[in-house]
Write a structure and sequence with these properties.
By secondary structure, the chain is α+β, with helices and mostly antiparallel strands. The protein is built from 17 helices and 13 strands. It has a five-stranded mixed beta sheet. A two-stranded antiparallel ribbon has the order 1-2. A two-stranded antiparallel ribbon has the order 3-4. Helix 3 packs across helix 4 and helix 4 crosses helix 5. The longest helix is centred in the N-terminal third of the chain and has 27 residues.
Amino acid sequence: MSLEHEINHWGINPEDPIDAELAALESSLDNLLARDPAYWRTAEKKERLKRLEIIQAKQAALKLRILAVAGDIAEETGAKDASGWMWTELLVDKKIGRAEVKLAAGVARYELVAAGLAEGVVSQEKARVIVKALEAIEADPEASRENLILAEKLLVEYATEMTATKLEIIGKRILVEVDPERFEAAEAKALQREEERAQRRTFFTSRANGDGTVDIHARVSYAVGLRLRTILDSLAQPRKLSAEDRGRKAPYDRLLGQAFARVIETYDVDQLPRHGGHATTVFITMNVEDLRKDLGTAALGFDGEHITAAEARRMACNADLIPVVLGTGSEILDFGRTTRLAHPVQHRALRLRDKCCQAEDCDAPAAWTEAHHLKPWSQGGRTDLANMVLLCSSDHRRIHDPNYGYERLPDGRIRFSRRV
């Protein structure tokens, strides 16, 4: 018997209400996508984004409910679970598909989490965080069923008040909130074990790429990583804002890399261990003529790696390294002395005097700057206030770049010009 007359304008059998509702949902979304939000008022955009967030959570709830009972799909296709079918038919990566199937099974076990998703007050990512925390409680031999029930209730409530990241932090110590007398000591011991594992897993490797760069890979404890990121953000964020104020875009990962280099270049070597009575130092070896002219190279350390003479001169302004200057017969003419560096008191005086970077087109605050010798130290320039100005790291690099010349303006500012 033909059913053609029973097919409606959505192309489905009206006797199947679920398919009809899905078709209506698809049709509504198509209608919404045909509208241009550029013409919506700000209040309308905010309200509709809120509603869409709720709709997205409800959609996730429906999808996870289906995946939780999709064992027959795996059985039919011979896959381990429904993620195999999702990979071949929906082109969903197996890792993502398996994570969704696992989450579906977890949500199905926790009624309050499932209800929060269905109501749209718990997002899929927050549900994942809560399920992970609850599974950890179930695996804890010290936790009771009552602890689990109360933890689920608290976490679902917290999900309406905080982001998934903050919820994850709370989830790791939710048992302490549930029963502090029983679990505070256990948490302290667990944290101690975690920190000890972090120490054992700490490492640092570096590999030269042969193109003037070095790749660095490291693993440190969370506390050390957080401190490092805080330091780098404190250096990179102001420069990002300064660049944006001048209409320039600066990739933040690049700014973080530059901030990391700044930390290394300005580290106080007096804090390093002493070897044979001497502080740890880096030697730069170059010919006297290369030191004084725009071109030329310098050897960094004792392994034969080279940098430009311009970079060596820039580093010599604010790094505790020792230039070894060679004459025509490779005889040592001079060992640089760290007294060429501006004293901290001089830095403070320069900041009071200059207020900011002295490049004509730059207003980087003094806190981000480095002291530069106007008459280079390599040419007998003295480390005194009259011979120094403050430059941000970008302009400090530019003043040592042989592709640029500069002049000192009457007000003390530095004007750069590209050399032809």
